[in-house]
Each structure stands twice: as structure tokens, then as C-alpha cells.
Amino acid sequence: MQLTIDCADPQRMVAFWTGALGYVPEPPPAGHASWRAYWQDMGVPPEELGEDAGETPESIVDPEGRGPRIWFQQVPEPKTVKNRLHLDLKVGGGRDVDIALRVERVTATVERVTAAGATILRIMDEPDMPYYAVVLQDPEGNEFCVV
């Protein structure tokens, strides 16, 4: 399975999301020095590749092989509305974990991803809520949650 995220700057997104998810940049297939070389060997015409396409990774993978591959597809238009799909970074441990510990875990992750370029949109911590979560945006404005 692969998730595709439209963006303006794939390299910026690769750098951000590798740190946020603990993923790694996807290396080019064996026998190829770069993704560009691979795509050229596959017969992709130069005019489709553009100048810099494939010189640096545009996708990330889970080093454990459990999570989906994520490809950052460069598009010309900016993000204009709320995304219909978002990622949840589930770091709190779930409802079986004491709320104070969940808040501590979520806060630590939020501090790490904001230092890497994320922006906090809102904190979900109403007194009557049995959970704690933070809604953020990645460097290109895509929403995600830390729960």
C-alpha cells in the first residue's frame, strides 16, 4: 500500500515526515544510483521527469516494513482546503494508559514535530474529554493529529 501526498516541495516533506514518523527516505531500486536513473531505465521521457525529479528521494518507507510507503507528489497548485485524509501519530498508548502519561507522551512528540516545522492548530483537552490530542499542520499545511 502507498499513501500519496500532494505537495510543492517533496524534499522538504521527506525531511519533515521521516522525523515525524521514524521512517527513512526510500532508496532507489537495486542497480540504480538514483530514482531518476531508475525512471530513465523504465523509459520515462525526460520531459516528464523535469530537471530535478528523482535526484533525491520523494518517498519514505517504514524501516520495519510495517507501515505504508508514502510518496510526496509535486503539484503546481497550493493546498486550499482541509484535507480529507490525515495521519494520526498514535503515541499516547490508548485509553488504558493514565491520562497524565498520555499527555506527557503527546506533548513530547508535539514538541519534536513543531521543532521540525509543524504548527499547532488546536489542543483537544476539554475537561469532559477522556482523551488528549493535538491537531497540527505539517510545513505545507496538511493537517495531522498527535494522540
In short:
The protein is built from 4 helices and 8 strands.
Describe the structure.
The protein is of the alpha/beta class and 147 residues long. The chain folds into 2 domains: 2-74, no CATH class; 87-146, Signal recognition particle alu RNA binding heterodimer, srp9/1 (2-Layer Sandwich). The chain has 4 helices and 8 strands. The strands form 2 sheets. A 4-stranded mixed beta sheet has the order 1-4-3-2, with helices on one face. The protein has a 4-stranded mixed beta sheet with strand order 5-8-7-6, with helices on one face. A hairpin with a 7-residue loop joins strand 3 and strand 4. The longest helix is centred in the last third of the chain and has 17 residues, at 99-115. It is elongated. The chain starts with a strand and ends with a strand. 22% of the residues are buried. The model has no long low-confidence stretch (mean pLDDT 90).
So what's the oligomer here?
Answer: single chain
In order across it, which strands form the biggest sheet? 1-4-3-2
Class computed from helices, strands and strand pairing: alpha/beta
The proportion of residues in beta strands is: 15-25%
Percent in helix: 25-40%
Topology:
Elements: E1 2-7, H1 10-21, E2 24-25, H2 35-41, H3 46-49, E3 59-61, E4 69-74, E5 87-89, H4 99-115, E6 119-124, E7 133-137, E8 143-146
Parallel strand pairs: 1-4, 5-8
Antiparallel strand pairs: 2-3, 3-4, 6-7, 7-8
